[in-house]
Amino acid sequence: MLSRRLLRVKVAKSLYAHLKSGSTNLMVSEKNLIASIDKAYDLYFQMMALIVDVARYAEHRIELAKQKKLPTYEDLNPNRRFVDNAVITMLANSESVGDVLATRKISWSHYPDTIKDVYNRMIESDYYKSYMGASISTFTDDKKFVEAFFNSLEDDEALADTLDEMSLLWNDDLSFALYMAIRTVSSLKQSHTDVKVLPKFKSEDDLEFACTLFRKSLVQYDENQDIVDRFTSNWDVERIAFMDNLIISIAIAELTNFDSIPVKVTLDEWIDIAKFYSSPTSSNFVNGVLDKIVAELTESGRIKKSGRGLL
Predict the structure, then answer these.
(1) What is the model's pTM?
(2) Which of 43, 45, 49, 83 could form a disulfide with 59 if both were Cys (CB 3.0 to 4.6 A apart)?
(3) Would you list the DSSP string of 287-301?
(4) What span, in angstroms and rounded, lies between the C-alpha atoms of 119 and 186?
(5) Which CATH number fits domain 220-306: 3.30.700.20, 1.10.10.10, 3.40.50.300, 1.10.940.10?
């Protein structure tokens, strides 16, 4: 399921795009936000389809090798541990996965070179050689192999480039999708008749959270920027990254509009996001400015928190 962290990142990117494009149409920008969230969920299925297609490519190579005029013993007696991996077979035959792939038209059919390249990198890996060289293979071994495959993709720059080509909305979404794929695989049991896919959201309120945060951040943007300006008056304005200002502004919108979200949660989330999406010193800057803003907004009564999540 898509985390609140990812939803916050999507809101920040959507607001950045809206402001930089000079758009005045909130509804169009909100639709783009929802589309980017949907695409992030698609990537989860795209990754599960990837290992299935890599296994099919491997099986195709095995069949071609058997058809050689002078096949070797290895050609005629191949190691089929990877292509017969029970977890990959479950993913390939899963109705729950297949239905989404068909409905959302998710496939790798236009990227055969990517499948080949991922396969070639995989067979050179230590985790692949260890798995293929083991004397026995259990369902647990099959799961660990698939999890290792997904983990290896986290730093696959060539795959990341391909994903950017497939959809600009997938920029920076790969780690989230892989985490979801690994969680799905780790929960599988040999007795399962189908793969239990993760829902798009943990809570029914998650999409509304993202849309409301985007709307409030946009509507309050000028007002929130005035607050930011007051608390950064001693800083060199030209050296403050636009993304820093944007992050602080969205954090203010979250602090003042979501009574049930603890202040600490909001601060921790946006400070961490600043580490990855702004300058190297941004997290300290954002932390320091937000601490002062929270103190003032709490004293003035603009930040009011209630609910079980605060206990």
Answers:
(1) 0.91
(2) 83
(3) HHHHHHHHHHHHHHT
(4) 22
(5) 1.10.940.10
